[in-house]
Design a protein that fits this description.
207 residues; mainly alpha; elongated
């Protein structure tokens, strides 16, 4: 009888991880074949702001969800233009999970995301515009209502406007009333827009 021994993945102990490792070594471990090594590297690169580009590059090809979670946590703590640009690239991923993870990460970076929000809301891809509206939901930025009004006044896609009007129903003020009425007129034959806009107007009126 032949017994086949299954090779177990290498486990990195706390002691090993706790040993001092230099920046170059951590970058090498970020692409290690072992997911555990990649997780530790993604955590331990946090003190190195120059590691942002490497973390973004690994995120875009990382298949292990647990490693991606750690990379995203490090990127949101590092912040900066490189991190945000990498997350925007992830919004265009074919993988839904990657897109959703990027949205959640961008919600945690309001100061960095705000300057590019106008570009996201006018992106050529309507799916990116919808995701941008979803980011606004938790962005806690004083321009949120103005951005949403701009969307419902000018975006040609009913699905994008529908997503925006849903959020306006939650965060909108009397400043949005005229835009909501214009939206109803612009999409007069779209039942959902009529329903959502009326609901938003009712909520705003109740104050």
């Amino acid at each position: 009888m032949v017994f086949i021994t299954k090779k177990m993945p290498r486990i990195i102990s706390d002691d090993e991880r706790g040993q001092e490792r230099d920046y170059a070594g951590l970058l090498a471990q970020l692409t290690d074949a072992d997911p555990a090594a990649r997780r530790w590297a993604a955590r331990d690169l946090l003190p190195y702001r120059d590691a942002t580009a490497a973390l973004v590059a690994q995120l875009q090809c990382e298949q292990d969800r647990s490693v991606r979670e750690i990379i995203l946590t490090s990127l949101t703590r590092l912040g900066g233009a490189i991190a945000v640009a990498g997350l925007v690239d992830c919004l265009r991923s074919e993988e839904a999970q990657m897109r959703n993870e990027a949205i959640e990460a961008m919600k945690a970076l309001p100061d960095e995301v705000a300057p590019i929000m106008g570009g996201l809301l006018s992106d050529d891809d309507p799916d990116v515009r919808i995701m941008a509206v979803n980011i606004l939901e938790s962005l806690r930025h004083p321009m949120v209502e103005d951005w949403l009004i701009e969307v419902i006044d000018h975006d040609p896609m009913v699905n994008v406007c529908g997503t925006a009007v849903d959020l306006l129903g939650e965060v909108g003020s009397k400043a949005a009333q005229d835009a909501l009425i214009r939206l109803k007129q612009r999409f007069g034959v779209e039942p959902y827009i009529q329903f959502a806009a009326d609901l938003a107007l009712q909520r705003i009126a109740k104050g």
